[in-house]
C-alpha cells in the first residue's frame, strides 16, 4: 500500500496514516501485521525551498532502523502460505507459457500469410512471364515469316493505307 500525507509531517500524522492503513488491511485480511516500510520525506527550508540531506558520496541520506534482537523482520511462511505462493507462481508460469504460445502462433500465422502472399505473387509473376515469353515468341515468329508487316514504309503497309 502507498500512503501519501499532504502538509506538514508530524509524529501524530504519521501515526494517523499508519492507523488508516491498518484499518484498510484489517478489512481485507483480519489479523494482519505490517513488516517493513519505506518512508520518503520532502523537507523545505524556512524560505520554502525544497532540500535533501546527502551522505559523503552525494547520495540522499538513508536511515535504516534495524529490528531489535530476536524480533522478526518478516513472519515465517506457513504451509498454507507456501501453497498459495506456489499456486500463484505456477499460475503466472502457465499464463506466461500461454502468452508465449499465443505469440508464437500469431508469429507463425503471420509467416504463413506472408508465404501464401509470396506464392500468389510468384504465381502471378510466372503467368506474366509466360504471357510475355509467348508474346515474344509470336512476335519473333511473325518477324521471321512476315517481316514486311513490321517495317515502317514497307510496300505491304503502303498498300493497306491506300485502300
Could you describe the 3D structure shown?
It is a single chain. With 163 residues, the protein is mostly helical. The chain folds into two domains: 1-58, no CATH class; 79-151 and 156-160. It is built from three helices and two strands, in the order H-E-E-H-H. The N and C termini lie far apart (100 Å). Residues 76-163 are annotated as: Disordered. Residues 81-97, 124-133 have a biased composition (Basic and acidic residues).
Sheet having the most strands: 2 strands, antiparallel
Q: Give the integer mean of the pLDDT values.
A: 89
Q: How many helix segments? A: 3
The span between the termini is 100 Å
Strand-pairing-aware structural class: mainly alpha
Which percent range fits the helix content?
55-70%
Which parts are unreliable, with pLDDT below 50 for 5 consecutive residues or more?
Answer: none
Summed up, the domain count is 2
Radius of gyration using CA atoms only: 42 Å
Map the helices and strands.
Elements: H1 11-28, E1 43-44, E2 50-51, H2 79-145, H3 155-162
Antiparallel strand pairs: 1-2
Keywords: Plasmid
Protein name: OfxX fusion product
Organism: Pseudomonas aeruginosa
Summary keywords:
mainly alpha, 163 residues, 2 domains
Summarize this structure briefly.
With 163 residues, this protein is an all-alpha fold.
Amino acid at each position: 500500500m502507498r500512503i501519501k500525507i499532504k502538509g506538514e509531517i508530524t509524529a501524530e500524522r504519521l501515526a494517523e496514516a499508519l492507523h488508516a492503513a491498518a484499518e484498510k488491511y484489517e478489512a481485507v485480511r483480519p489479523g494482519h501485521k505490517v513488516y517493513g516500510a519505506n518512508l520518503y520525506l520532502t523537507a523545505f527550508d524556512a524560505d520554502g525551498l525544497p532540500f535533501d540531506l546527502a551522505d559523503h558520496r552525494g547520495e540522499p541520506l538513508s536511515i535504516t532502523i534495524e529490528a531489535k534482537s530476536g524480533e522478526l523482520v518478516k513472519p515465517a511462511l506457513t504451509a498454507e502460505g507456501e501453497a498459495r505462493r506456489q499456486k500463484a507462481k505456477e499460475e503466472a508460469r502457465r499464463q506466461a507459457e500461454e502468452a508465449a504460445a499465443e505469440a508464437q502462433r500469431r508469429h507463425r500465422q503471420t509467416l504463413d500469410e506472408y508465404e501464401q502472399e509470396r506464392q500468389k505473387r510468384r504465381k502471378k509473376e510466372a503467368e506474366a512471364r509466360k504471357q510475355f515469353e509467348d508474346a515474344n515468341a509470336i512476335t519473333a515468329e511473325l518477324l521471321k515469316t512476315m517481316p514486311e508487316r513490321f517495317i515502317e514504309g514497307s510496300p505491304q503497309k503502303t498498300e493497306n493505307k491506300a485502300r
